[in-house]
């Protein structure tokens, strides 16, 4: 039995009112990525300054994005899930 095996579900950050799940499809450079959102829309998402050096985002990562009010094809990334958290979200049917 490993130290990390608590045998249970971890409490994960869930989307707030204006956030949606998304999967990173490709890196565009200049702190921008292309994401496919759970509402079916492909958006260009911006990696905010507070995440740029601390959180590394790669293709196929599951993230939370907040679509812009005034331009629906753009969004800001608010959270990145690590691989095991993304797997848990898939198992529970959220994404």
TrEMBL record:
InterPro entries: NA-bd_OB-fold (IPR012340), RNA-binding_domain_S1_IF1 (IPR006196), TIF_eIF-1A (IPR001253), TIF_eIF-1A_CS (IPR018104). One of its GO terms (molecular function) is RNA binding. Pfam families: eIF-1a (PF01176). SUPFAM superfamilies: Nucleic acid-binding proteins. Keywords: Initiation factor, Protein biosynthesis. Residues 8-82 form the S1-like domain. PANTHER family: EIF-1A. Seems to be required for maximal rate of protein biosynthesis. Enhances ribosome dissociation into subunits and stabilizes the binding of the initiator Met-tRNA(I) to 40 S ribosomal subunits. Belongs to the eIF-1A family. This is Translation initiation factor 1A. It comes from Haloarchaeobius iranensis.
């Amino acid at each position: 039995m490993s130290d990390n095996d608590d045998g249970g579900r971890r409490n994960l950050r869930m989307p707030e009112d204006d956030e949606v799940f998304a999967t990173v499809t490709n890196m565009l450079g200049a702190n921008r990525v292309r994401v496919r959102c759970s509402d079916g829309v492909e958006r260009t998402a911006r990696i905010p300054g507070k995440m740029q050096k601390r959180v590394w985002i790669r293709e196929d990562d599951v993230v939370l994005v907040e679509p812009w009010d005034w331009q629906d094809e753009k969004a800001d990334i608010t959270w990145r899930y690590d691989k095991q958290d993304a797997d848990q979200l898939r198992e529970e049917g959220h994404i």
